[in-house]
Design goal:
Elements: E1 7-12, H1 27-39, E2 45-55, E3 58-61, H2 90-102, E4 107-110, H3 117-126, E5 134-140, H4 145-154, E6 163-169, H5 175-179, H6 184-202, H7 208-216, H8 224-227, H9 235-244, E7 250-256, E8 259-266
Parallel strand pairs: 1-6, 2-5, 2-6, 3-4
Antiparallel strand pairs: 1-8, 7-8
Helix pairs in contact: 4-9
Protein name: Dioxygenase
Organism: Kangiella profundi
Family: Belongs to the DODA-type extradiol aromatic ring-opening dioxygenase family.
């Protein structure tokens, strides 16, 4: 396989549109994502797997001018007028569909769905000029960890291209906990899972078979089901690992709404 030109990153994208509304509880996240975007080579395209789209088969947004999908509720009116006039990349979407079909992974091209906030919120922070074409790809219903690792593996030939591949989720995603009591036990569970996730993604001493096994059996990690009562915000990490198949090169860590969150980068 050719040398890796692509950057792969599992990112925590925050709570709804709040990172774009000046929310102080998201400032550390905003600062980290902005710094990350400045540190990596500017990509020619961005491919995003967002926690907020699940389908029965892998769906790919093929629209050359995708709209935005404001898939959140109860936020200030301004959050429903956010603009990110980015272009799509139909040729790259076609290539991704072909790569997946070669691995017998069924796909569907989606021409009408807009980019959800798991896409436009982090990208507006990272690349506010909206001058890089973007493709969004769905997760699979059922959220099977192994299937999502295989999905990433099927796309490994993309790593020879100057693109950014984002798994956009949240390393901590318990909505009740964000607004509940910030006691010592909740902090310990948050940190225990984050420590486990960091070791799993970053440890150079782990054999790749063992790393994959840990990710597939993530529910057994300390604090796992507290941090992820439902795993849709974790599963984009499995796609990133399937693409990389090695330890991450870098971790970003910050607090969001009183909870520790992490991002993992392969470059």
């Amino acid at each position: 396989m050719a040398a890796q030109k692509a950057t792969i990153a599992y990112i925590s994208h925050g709570g709804g549109p709040l990172p774009l509304l000046g929310d102080p509880a998201h400032q550390e996240m905003v600062d980290n994502l902005q710094s990350f975007a400045k540190e990596v080579r500017k990509p020619e395209a961005v491919v995003v797997f967002s926690a907020h789209w699940e389908e029965s088969e892998v769906s790919i947004i093929s629209n050359p001018r995708p709209s935005l999908y404001y898939d959140y509720y109860g936020f200030p009116e301004e959050s429903y007028h956010i603009q990110y006039p980015v272009s799509g990349n139909p040729p790259l979407a076609d290539k991704i569909q072909t790569l997946l079909s070669h691995k017998n992974i069924s796909t569907e091209m989606e021409a009408t769905r807009g980019l959800d906030h798991g896409v436009f919120v982090p990208l507006k922070i990272m690349y506010p000029e909206a001058d890089i074409p973007v493709i969004q790809i769905s997760l699979l219903n059922g959220l099977d960890p192994e299937k999502h690792i295989q999905l990433g593996r099927a796309l490994r030939s993309l790593l020879s291209e100057n693109i950014l591949i984002l798994g956009s989720g949240f390393s901590f995603h318990n909505l009740k906990a964000f607004f509940g009591a910030r006691d010592q036990q909740s902090r310990q569970l948050n940190e225990a899972f984050d420590d486990w996730l960091t070791e799993t993604c970053m440890s150079a001493s782990l054999h790749e078979f063992d790393r994959a096994e840990r990710l597939m059996e993530w529910q057994n990690a300390p604090g796992a089901l507290y941090c992820h009562p439902r795993e849709e915000h974790l599963i984009p990490l499995h796609i990133c690992y399937g693409l990389a198949q090695r330890a991450a090169d870098k971790r970003l860590s910050f607090d969001v709404m009183g909870k520790r969150a992490s991002c993992f980068i392969w470059s």
